Amino acid sequence: MVATPVKLPELVADKPETPPKPAPLPTEDRSMNPPEGMEWVDGQLIEKTGMTFKHGLAQANLASLWRNYAVSSGQGGKVLTETPCRTQNQTRRPDVSYLTAEQVDELDDFVVFPQSFPLIGEIVSPDDPAEALFAKANEYLQSGCEEVWLLYPGAQIVIIVTQEGWSIFHAGEISTQVILHGFNTLIEALFT
């Protein structure tokens, strides 16, 4: 069975024509590299909490599936977990992210990626408010990301967010929309 996306354009905030570049921070600024398990949000050091067995399983599954496909398809690139990136004024640690082969060659090594990764997966914890996650997805898109996956392990739902809109998937096959061309999997494979 192939999942049919449900478009939710009313959830998309006004989109800039070109994502603005993050404002540079002085190299001595501590927010460039927050401590493990933390993010800099609105000038505050915030601990990432609420991880559960289902959260960890979905994170591991998504990272493995994206990595295996990047290798087998010949697209290359790197799949990362909990690696910090800059958004406009924040330093975030997406649960799973993907860098294209070109970006890997260009940057070679970094402590904090200077913008949002092009493909990001966030696994929703039971204590994550939906409004905050939607705002985070938009924040990523405004900072260079092209595609965000929001995975809800409890409900086995995936919301994919791009500049074009939001799509909800709840069963069957799901595929990337913009980045990691040709990747697809069954939704159930993300959560079991």
Walk me through what this model shows.
The protein is α+β, with helices and mostly antiparallel strands. The protein has a domain at 59-191: tt1808, chain A, CATH 3.90.1570.10. 23% of the residues lie in helices and 26% in strands. It contains 4 helices and 13 strands. The chain has helices spanning 53-72, 101-107, 130-141, 187-191, and strands spanning 6-7, 38-41, 44-47, 78-81, 85-86, 91-92, 96-99, 119-123, 147-152, 157-162, 165-169, 173-175, 184-186. A hairpin with a 4-residue loop joins strand 5 and strand 6. Residues 6-28 have low confidence and may be disordered.
Count of individual helical segments: 4
| CATH level 1 name of the domain at 59-191 | Alpha Beta
Shape: globular
Helix content: 10-25%
Question: What fraction strand?
Answer: 25-35%
Largest sheet: 7 strands, mixed
Mean pLDDT: 83
Q: What is the fold named in CATH at topology level of the domain at 59-191? A: tt1808, chain A
**What structural category characterises the helix and strand content?**
alpha+beta
Low-confidence spans: pLDDT under 50, at least 5 residues? 6-28
From the alpha-carbon coordinates, what is the Rg to the nearest angstrom? 16 Å
The appropriate CATH architecture of the domain at 59-191 is Alpha-Beta Complex
Spatial separation of the terminal alpha carbons: 18 Å
